[in-house]
Amino acid sequence: MSDTPDVNASTPQRVPVIAIDGPSGSGKGAVTQRLAAALGFHILDSGALYRLIGLAARKHQVGLADEVALAAIARQLDVNFVATDDAEEPLQVELEGETVTRLIRTDAAGTDASAVARLPLVRDALIQRQRDFARAPGLVADGRDMGTVVFTDAILKIYLTASAEARAERRYKQLKDKGMGVSLHDLFLSIQTRDEQDMNRAAAPLRPAADALLVDSTEMALDEVFALVLAAARASLGLAATVDQPA
Q1: pLDDT for res 88
Q2: Can you state the angle between helices 120-131 and 46-59, rounded to 10 degrees?
Q3: Which pLDDT value is given to residue 227?
Q4: How far apart are CA 198 and CA 172, in angstroms?
Q5: Total domains in the fold of the chain
Q6: Is 240 part of a structural domain of the chain?
Q7: Do residues 50 and 39 make contact, with C-beta atoms less than 8 angstroms apart?
Q8: Domain that holds residue 184
Q9: Burial (Cβ within 10 Å: 0-12, 13-18, ≥19) of residue 54
Q10: Structural domain includes residue 246
């Protein structure tokens, strides 16, 4: 039996959304991609949007403190997400026709994203654009304010976290496996700085939604986290009683 619920595409408010929030390195990107594949849903990588704004700003020589100009970039951002068959890069990201998948995953791009994400005008410019990603049969949205701001009516909200040490080690291994030179100590300091910025910014601070399922993955393998989230998603979609049951 298919895991994809029967959704009326002509009724946007009925499109189910699963929001997965959490700090950098918590594994929400990998979980989002696996969950979307299992359910046949679309993906929104909202963190990539902020990284793309930072990259576009540098490309067009716009200062990261110029809130008005950055908001204009956000409204006009020429971005495309393309699913691939590559296990290492399951989601190709294009900016203005150029593939920037790896470029936006650097630590520097993450730092730029945190700076951009603090600006209220930029966040406001992106809210409707993010909501437009909700299309039938459903959406898995990955970010930092998906459940608290963008999709407050999501059928399931997950807050995925882990210790800063664990997240730094995961990020270090990920970048090393891609042949990118990086310092574990520098990554740890960067994650601590980003956590501080994201949790204390005035606009949509990083925090769990009141009705979110909290998952601390510090001592969990990715498969364990995914199994827990998939079970919660199936239950929220009304699939738990009919999926993987014997005939």
Answers
A1: 67
A2: 130
A3: 96
A4: 21
A5: 1
A6: no
A7: no
A8: 14-232
A9: buried
A10: no
Task: Tell whether 1 is covered by a domain.
Answer: no
Amino acid making up residue 156? L
In 3D space, the residue among 38, 40, 177, 154 whose CA is nearest the CA of residue 102 turns out to be 177
Rounded CA gap, 136 and 134, in Å? 7
Q: 150-169: per-residue pLDDT in tens?
A: 999 999 999 999 999 999 99
Q: Is 245 part of a structural domain of the chain?
A: no
- Extract the residue ranges of the chain whose pLDDT is less than 50: 1-13, 241-247
Strand order in the sheet with 42-45: 42-45, 139-143, 17-21, 156-161, 213-216
Give the separation between CA 235 and CA 242, rounded to whole angstroms: 10
Q: Which two three-digit tokens encode residue 233?
A: 């998603």
CATH number at residue 79: 3.40.50.300
pLDDT (tens digit per residue) in 175-225: 787 777 788 988 899 888 888 888 887 777 889 999 999 999 999 999 999
Q: State how far the Cα of 145 lies from the Cα of 8, in Å rounded to an integer.
A: 26
Closest CA to 117 of 210, 216, 23: 23
Write down the residue that tokens 């100590």 correspond to: 185
Q: Which tokens is 35 given?
A: 């969950």
In angstroms, what is the C-alpha Rg of the chain? 18
Provide CB contacts within 8 A for 94, sequence distance 6+.
79, 80, 81, 82, 100
pLDDT at residue number 140: 96
Question: What one-letter code names the amino acid at 118?
Answer: R
Helix, strand, coil percent values for the chain (each to nearest 5): 45, 15, 40
Supply the pLDDT for residue 240.
53
